[in-house]
Amino acid sequence: MSYTIEVTIAEPASSDEEVETRMYQLPDPYETVASAREAAVAHIASLDVAPAVVIYTVFDREGFTVASSVDELAEAG
Description:
Shape: elongated
Distance between the termini: 30 Å
Radius of gyration: 13 Å
Strand content: 25-35%
């Protein structure tokens, strides 16, 4: 099965601005959830933003969420 990654970046806003959100998919499919997670973490580390403002979601080929950095934060918290 192949998996895709969606990245969401929520840029912090100043007090008088709205939060700017950018969403995009990484171009490559991944064979396992673990390899998709590793690719997402590596991609986020390469960005010039604080990791705390980035969320990744891994989808299966039917579009169902199978992993998310939000889930990992909830488990750790």
